[in-house]
Structure formats: structure tokens, C-alpha cells
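Recap from last week: sequence in, structure out.
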Amino acid sequence: MDWPDTRVVKVIVNPQANHGQAAALLPAVRQAAMRWNNAEVLVTTRYGQATEMAAGFTGVDGVIVVGGDGSIFEAVNGLADAGRLNTVLGVVPAGSGNDFAKALGLPRDFKSAVSLIDQWRVRTIDLGTADGRVFTNSLAVGFDARVAHLANEIKRDTKKSGLSLYLTALWRIMFADYYCHDVRLRLNGGEWIDKKILLAAINNGSTYGGGFKITPDADNTDGWLDVCVIDALPRWQVFWRLPFAIAGRHKWMKQASFYRVTRVDIESDAPLPAALDGELILNRTFRVEIKPGALQALVKD
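Predicted C-alpha cells:
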């Protein structure tokens, strides 16, 4: 497909994505960019740089991110900071998890992903907000976030990625540092609920952790956040219940509660570990809200 002469895009590449394997894509990215009206290709060299780049773009129709969920998180927050969320977002999945790409139905294969950018099919999708930052896919609080924090450390030292990386971190937490969290929850501005939980997932997409189907019915175009709260469990129960949750077949569990909301508040007396689209944070309070139809993204269909 021939591009309009007036369409202007910028390409952000994170060469460190997926243990540095994304760097090998650079020559092919530069070649593809020639088809996109000789789009400028910018390469990040440090944490947070994609946010700065995206915030500084003016007069562009689209931003293409070659990287993983963390790179997308940075770029989208840069657009949000600059008040330019009307800029179209394209993704070439090159990370270790690629959960947002899965939510958009994008192929992992580089040539197929690039061909979708050529076709420029745009869909309006929702975003979430958490304490002043936007996210495309998920906020995990509690056990899963602690696993994500450890997985980030393991990723630096191994070649593991996706579900394999998640499970490696999971086993280490289970055997060496297992505990649950006392929290207060409020859904849609209602009454506060005191709970001891294993985890809370507040999602715009259906998966996190590289394919963990914690909110299997989530739809990032429906104007709702899907929430899964799993109550405290003894360690031994986590082992046999986990495969059901990974496969998205855990609705039958009485310890699992599911909600569709526009706002969630979470509080705790102790700092709560959280993972926001892979961004690792530690807070005592979280306010999470939906921004319906806030972003335009390139999709498969």
C-alpha cells in the first residue's frame, strides 16, 4: 500500500528489548521506515528516553514503537504528557512479554507486524490511569507484582522471557518469600472493603506476565477495566490453582472475584508492590481509572 505523501511518523526502537535481541532488527526497521516516507528512526539508550522522545514530537501522525510493553508504556506516557494522545500508535512486538501486542491481535513475526503498519488500520482503544500515569494493558498489585519485580532481576542475568521467565520468578517467591497482603478496596466510589489478598489485577487487556490470562474477558474497547481479586491462599493451594489462572479458567474459584469498573481505589498500611505495564512501583495507595477511547492504535483487523 502506498502511503499518503503527507503522513509523518517517527519510529522509536529499544535495542535492549528481549535481552538485547531487538538490536538485530534495526537494519530491517530502517529499511521499512523508507517505505513510511523515510520516517526518522530513533534508538533509545537509557531508561525513560522513549517518554522524552514521544513528548517532543510535533506535527506527526503516528509513532511506531519497536520494543516490549515497557517501551510502549514510556512512549504512550510521553504522548500523554504532551497532550498528543490523538497521535496514532503502532507496535512492532520485540519484547519478552508483548501482552499489549497480544491484546491488539498483532503477530510476533517482524515482517507480518510491519505489513500491518503499511496497511494503517486504526482502532480507538481505552487507556487506564494510575496515579497520574497512563497504561495500555495492566496494573498488578501484590503477589504477581512481587513476581514481576523478581522476574526483572532474573531477566538481567538469564535469557528467559515471557511465561518461562514468569514461572522461574514464581517458584522462587513461592519457596523463599511467600506472603499475602492486607488491603482496603473501593470499587466505583462505593464502600471500602477490607481484604487479605494474594493479588489484584486491574486490566485493560486480557493477559499479563507474557500470557497469563488473569482477566480473560477483558476488552480494551469496551470502556471498562476488568478486575480480578484473588483472596489469600495457603502456599500449597497456589500450586494447584495457578495453572487454571494461567489458562484463564479460574472463574469457578470461590477465592477469585471478578468486577468491571471505571474506578478502583486500593490502600494498604504497608507499601504494596505493583507492576504497571511492566513498570515496577511501590505505593501505599493506588487510584486506577479508565479513559475510554483515549488512544488510536494500529491493529490487525
